[in-house]
Design brief:
Transposase IS116/IS110/IS902 family protein; mainly alpha; about 150 residues; 2 domains
């Protein structure tokens, strides 16, 4: 019921539903139960059905780009970011691959001014190379040998 109360308070779609039912003189407990049932159906779709939720009145948010932004904001180690992005990609249904690629491709196409974080540049490269948490990256270049 706490989930339902939070949805009514914070989400405009559920707030509107609750207000509509309030005008129709539906009992407040019944309103919360109805919204909780809808929320549980949504959660079941996402968790058990491995589907992306497309709610009414909600803009489509891209999972992989949100996850990448989260890791950038929280300065997560690159190996952990790559591992989690890989797990999220494996979870996505194949029908959503094209949609998920759009914001990432747009981000790659943008011309950036100023300095770019090294992590932003290395994540795609490390993912392609298959580097994970247990692997270490050592350089045998002449610059690496001369700096020892």
């Amino acid at each position: 019921m706490l989930v339902a109360e939070n949805l009514i308070k914070c989400h405009p779609y559920y707030r509107g539903l609750s207000n509509t039912w309030k005008q129709r003189k539906v009992d407040p407990r019944d309103r919360r139960c109805r919204i909780a049932n809808r929320a549980m159906r949504m959660v079941y779709q996402i968790v058990a059905g491995q589907q992306l939720w497309r709610g009414k009145g909600v803009d489509r948010e891209y999972l992989l780009s949100k996850l990448q932004a989260f890791h950038q904001n929280h300065q997560t180690p690159i190996s952990q970011s790559v591992a989690q992005l890989g797990e999220a990609f494996a979870w996505l249904p194949k029908s959503s691959y094209a949609e998920e690629a759009k914001p990432l491709a747009e981000l790659a196409r943008k011309k950036r001014r100023g300095p770019t974080a090294l992590g932003d540049l290395l994540v795609p490269l490390l993912a392609r190379l298959g580097i994970n948490d247990s692997d270490t990256v050592e350089s045998e270049s002449s610059e690496a040998r001369s700096s020892r």
